[in-house]
Design goal:
Blueprint lengths: L7 H8 L3 H16 L5 E2 L11 H12 L15 H15 L8 E4 L1 H13 L5 E5 L5 H8 L3 E5 L9 H7 L4 E7 L11 H18 L4 E5 L22 E6 L12 E5 L6 H14 L7 H9 L8 H16 L12 E2 L8 H10 L2 E2 L1 E2 L9 E4 L4 H19 L3
Parallel strand pairs: 1-10, 3-4, 3-5, 5-6, 6-7
Antiparallel strand pairs: 2-8, 7-8, 9-12, 11-12
Helix pairs in contact: 3-10, 4-10, 5-6, 5-9, 11-13
């Protein structure tokens, strides 16, 4: 038999593939056996809420225009007017004045992260990330010859600055943060970000190279109980913000996002040139033309958060009553309870027997927990609750 055509590198990656996708595929398999209504899938962060009403109106208006070149190539950085709109919105949110030249439109946040790592990493360079984290980060860094270096969080899933400091070495090129965090929903405090900025300033001087702070913020506007997300731009000069409209506008399948440079960053223009070049040569070429025009007109629009708020409240209340240890998420649309079993994968498989699909904490580099996504229809949550309660009673006793 001839050798397989898949590379050894890809073969290794497949064995470490995302538990999120693995569990989503398991849900699909169960639906094919039992029917869609008999499977309670809390695995995937795929919003059940439809885009805001304004989205359809803007899209219809654009398509009805007799405009030449609506679907043609544009600058690899994106339409200037879209970049201006994004820069204006970010300026208001962060209290730092950005211009269109500080923004590059991308194929979602995933595309933006790959563009960044292609631009700043040399082979063997390291990117530090706090656990638990979105597992795809490791693949994005590896795509460009880098090495992901996970560190432990603080006891409340915040940033452990001592752990980050200990991990910084001569090959450190970036620290990657995600706030609100997937999977915990934790929002990192302004104080911790300021301290992180001071640490990175000192350590950049000590190691003799710029250490970037890359902030992945697709859940920035999905927050609860009056929480606000502090600005990383105000904490550190050498910061790149990444985001997408997948969550705040429920446009996950449209693959539209952006990256933005801190305008106070030294040599920002040269970094921007590298990012725009990477956007082209990685094959993204440019962000989707039609969606760029749409989001430029949806200034301030946001999905209706009432379903997420309701599901968050109902799930948390029922789980806590059933004995689970559940940190309260400040943002995003996930819960990250402690698993009743030390082996979180075993507990997730136990739930699968009753057709409740969740993701083990092992898939986020943090065993002993599991993630539930509550961006789902009410009936999915309500149907899963009795099974989650019974599992709690088995392991914790009646509460």
């Amino acid at each position: 038999m001839p050798a397989m055509s898949v590379s050894a590198r890809t073969t290794r990656a497949l064995t470490q593939s995302s538990w999120i996708r693995r569990m989503s595929e398991e849900a699909e398999r169960l639906r094919s056996i039992h029917g869609p209504g008999a499977v309670f899938d809390l695995s995937l962060g795929n919003p059940a809420v439809e885009p805001p009403e304004e989205f359809a109106a803007v899209l219809r208006d654009l398509l009805s225009e007799e405009r030449h070149g609506l679907h043609k190539y544009m600058s690899n950085a994106g339409y200037w007017e879209t970049r201006e709109a994004v820069a204006d919105d970010l300026s208001r949110e962060h209290g730092v004045r950005l211009s269109a030249s500080d923004v590059v439109m991308t194929c979602g946040a995933a595309g933006a992260l790959n563009v960044i790592f292609r631009t700043i990493l040399d082979p063997g360079d390291e990117v530090i990330v706090t656990r638990p984290f979105f597992v795809e980060y490791g693949f994005y860094v590896d795509n460009h010859g880098g090495v992901l270096v996970p560190v432990q969080p603080s006891a409340d899933f915040g940033l452990d600055l001592d752990a980050i400091k200990a991990a910084i070495g001569p090959r450190t090129r970036a620290v990657l943060v995600n706030s609100p965090n997937n999977p915990t929903g934790r929002v990192y405090s302004a104080e911790s970000l300021t301290e992180l900025g001071l640490l990175l300033s000192r350590r950049s001087v000590a190691v003799g190279r710029t250490i970037y702070l890359v902030s992945d913020e697709p859940y920035r506007r999905l927050v609860y109980d009056g929480v606000t997300v502090p600005s990383v731009f105000r904490a550190y000069q050498n910061t790149i913000v990444v985001s997408s409209y997948s969550k705040e506008l429920s446009l996950a399948g449209e693959r539209i996002g952006y990256l933005a440079l801190n305008p106070t960053m030294p040599d920002a223009a040269r970094l921007a040139d590298g990012l725009i070049f990477a956007n082209r040569i990685l094959g993204f070429v440019n962000a989707p033309a039609l969606m760029q025009r749409v989001v430029a007109k949806l200034r301030g629009a946001l999905v209706d958060l009432s379903l997420y708020e309701r599901n968050r409240r109902v799930l948390m209340g029922a789980l806590i009553e059933s004995g689970y240890d559940v940190p309260s998420p400040q943002g995003a649309f996930y819960l990250f309870p402690r698993s009743p079993l030390a082996d979180d994968v075993a507990f997730v498989r136990e739930l699968l027997e009753d057709r409740v699909v969740v993701v083990p904490g092992t898939g986020f580099g943090f065993p002993g927990h599991f993630r539930l996504s509550y961006c789902v229809a009410e009936e999915v949550v309500d149907s899963a609750l009795p099974i989650l309660r019974l599992a709690g009673q088995r392991h914790f006793g009646d509460s």
